[in-house]
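Standup notes, structure subgroup. Blocker cleared on the magnesium ion input:
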Amino acid sequence: MKPPRQFFKPLAIGAPAPMRDLPVRLERMIHFVPPHLEKMRNKVPDLIREVDVVLGNLEDAIPADAKEAARHGLIEMGKAHDYGATGLWARINALNSPWALDDIVEIVAALGNKLDVIMLPKVEGAWDIHYLDQLLAQLEARHHASRPILIHAILETAGGVNNVEAIASASPRMHGISLGPADLAASRAMKTTRVGGGHPDYVVLADAKAGGAPDGRAAFQQDLWHYTIARMVDACSAAGIKPFYGPFGDFSDPAACEAQFRNSFLMGCVGAWSLHPTQIEIAKRVFSPDPAEVAFAKKILAAMPDGSGAVMIDGKMQDDATWKQAKVVVDLARLVAAKDPAMAALYGV
Ligand code: GLV
Ligand code: MG
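Run returned:
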């Protein structure tokens, strides 16, 4: 096992020291841009104002013959703009692909001091993180980067789910993990062709005794992703990194997208991917706390200034644990308010 002190030493001479804490940033939606398309790159200045994270996607959905154009497009859009408080991320190709090495080497050379996070797909175990961790340190040293680029893993293989705790705690460079339901479904041989969301056949029937005729029994659709999201949230929270729901592929069903995002938010996720402009608003709505919840949470914090003891508010018992829940909600409201004056007014923070 690696001795604790070693974790915070740079992995290459001249590389920046690993971060002890994650930067405090609002990351409600990670907005995917296909950077080989000039029309899409032209939208980046508006996106920087509108979204929390702009991600240049180099992996799946980018045709094999456009991989290099996408990499160059990402470098161009990274250099062209000031991203301010908006995150600049890249999803590179998988480590076993013919493109990953050049993705990493060229992106760090060009954007080493601008890129916040590299999203790594198809992570199977801690060894994938260790490889990228070491290589990034060497490149950061070579290019005189002043702060470390963080790593965000996609949880999208059965092996990855088996190893999710080890992945989450593999390095201080770990930023978070996103669920990748499409690849994960394929990896597990799940019988669905959808990108996230539920399936009409994954149901529990009402009890035969209670429900009358066999055909008339109520069927309750269950959440196919509950188990994986729960494991991911526990692994991330225990390691002090951030869990995210990933993509929702059916752009024609915003209500189902919102339900999937909201379930993940309630379970502890801090954001999701937006693959279509309509999903930006959905993510904003879902991953910003409800003003009524914020108002109630502020009452709890005000009633228990040192966070201990027990009080009754509106007939509900509050104690040290609900104080901590209230603090999560109010801290998030403050982050949202700093980006969005309209929400600041609603929250009164
Ligand atoms: C995302 O990459 C997924 O496979 O769902
Ligand atoms: Mg995938």
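Discussed briefly. The chain has a mean pLDDT of 95.
Next: hand off to the docking folks.
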